[in-house]
Amino acid sequence: MSSRLPLRVRKVQFVYPDDLVAHWNPRRPEWSQVVNASSLLMPYLEPFLIDAIREAIPRIGDPELRDEAKAYLGQEAHHFKQHRRFNDLLLARGYESLRAYEDTLADDYRRLRTRPLAFRLAYAAGFETMALAIGHMLVRHRRFFFAHGDANVGSLVLWHFVEEVEHKRAAFDVYQAVVGRWGQRLHGLAYALWHTLRRTRQAYVELLRADGLWGRWKTRVALKLLMLRIAAACGPRLLESVLPWHDPARIADPPWIREWVELYERGEPGLTHLDMHRIHLTPSEAIP
């Protein structure tokens, strides 16, 4: 069981090149657009999570958990602001038609905000369960996902999921403290998975269609192989999370993430521009 260490709100800023392209990993255009589609979700999903946890904080009796929940709000707020900046650059690269998709996301979360707090907290805990699994996957398979990709985008994604792993227990513990029902938690997990994956697929299909790639058999095969890799990496952890005794605090953080955090505490500026050709190494070895 890990101790409840204070979360750090890191106001990291990312700078993107003027010639930033949507296929920021040219060897994996399908993966590039899956990540871009996920990024489009963040400015709508994460404010929804923030609002649910903020509403729950007055109902939490444990002062340490209240402090952790407040720091979680700070981390998530900075995540979606950084993704908003990236998304605006992306959409300006010939994807303005996806503004209508953003309206769909806004409508989704407007409706979800009318649901009871118990459901919204279960959704938050469910999404964070998925984010924890993805964070472990991205670090473990970072060579596959990021080698030869743009250093700025890769560093953005890795920073985001370093903090997702770091605050792995916050939304879960808030849910347990305020609601605590196992069945409701499973419902929230299932709904969060269905909703976010459905909307992400909708976006990457539109992105690839705009690229003229969606109708190609090579694109479809590459996507199927990619999704099989993701399912194989994340599936066991997601299956474990449905057990009544699941507790994310028991899941050890990858050493790569622990070193990233240590380097940040030392003031290392290279974390925002990691060398993707050496990303399979430790963070200190991947700093240009």
Describe this structure in words.
The protein has 288 residues and is mostly helical. The protein contains 10 helices and no strands. It has helices spanning 29-56, 63-91, 99-112, 117-140, 142-146, 151-166, 170-178, 182-211, 217-241, 255-265. The radius of gyration is 18 Å and the shape is globular. The two termini are 35 Å apart.
Short overview:
With 288 residues, the protein is mainly α.
Layout: helices, strands, pairs:
Blueprint: H1 29-56, H2 63-91, H3 99-112, H4 117-140, H5 142-146, H6 151-166, H7 170-178, H8 182-211, H9 217-241, H10 255-265
Features:
10 helices; mainly alpha
Strand/helix succession: HHHHHHHHHH
| Structural class by sheet pairing and helices | mainly alpha
Principal-axes geometry comes out as globular
Strand content is under 5%
Distance linking N and C termini: 35 Å
Average pLDDT: 96
Radius of gyration: 18 Å
Q: Let me know the largest β-sheet.
A: none
* Count of separate DSSP helical elements: 10
State the helical fraction: 55-70%
Could you give the count of β-strands?
0
Q: Unreliable stretches, pLDDT < 50, 5 or more residues?
A: none
